[in-house]
Amino acid sequence: MKGGINQSRGCNILIKDRWDLTLECIRLYYLDLESPLSDVLKNNKEFFDLFVDFKGYVDFFYLQDCVSEDYEKVVFWLDHNEFVPNPLPQNCDEYLNWIERELQFVKKRNERIHRSLCS
């Protein structure tokens, strides 16, 4: 869909397709707070209503490793976690750290999905 969530998060200068920042926008949406993706998230209200709240969203998509134990905070993959222009890694060390955190998340999420399917 043109102007949908994925296009918006990829093209937004304050998000630049970072999943952690996108999830923070979704967390803020459920708190009825503004974020760089507020408009597109509000346009998809019916979708987000399916999950009732942020915890429901996180649990449905097996994203527990992206949030704190109490679901109150997003675990960011870079030290700079504000909505700022060009939120991408700024040097090689940041880039390697970011990639490592993403890979750890994917591994943990795959394990969580596997446990869910095999139990």
Sequence of secondary-structure elements: HHHHHH
Largest sheet: none
Averaging pLDDT over every residue, what do you get? 94
Beta-strand segment tally: 0
- SS class: mainly alpha
CA-CA gap between termini: 36 Å
Radius of gyration, whole Å:
15 Å
Helical run tally: 6
Helix content: 40-55%
Q: In percent terms, what proportion of residues is strand? A: under 5%
Which word captures the global form?
A: globular
What are the low-pLDDT stretches, counting only 5+ consecutive residues below 50? none
Structure description:
It is a single chain. The chain has helices at residues 5-11, 19-30, 38-43, 45-49, 54-60, 92-118. With 119 residues, the chain is mainly α. The termini are far apart. The model has no long low-confidence stretch (mean pLDDT 94).
List the helices and strands and how they pair.
Elements lengths: L4 H7 L7 H12 L7 H6 L1 H5 L4 H7 L31 H27 L1
Q: Tags for this entry?
A:
119 residues, mainly alpha, 6 helices, globular
Summarize the structure.
With 119 residues, the protein is mainly α.
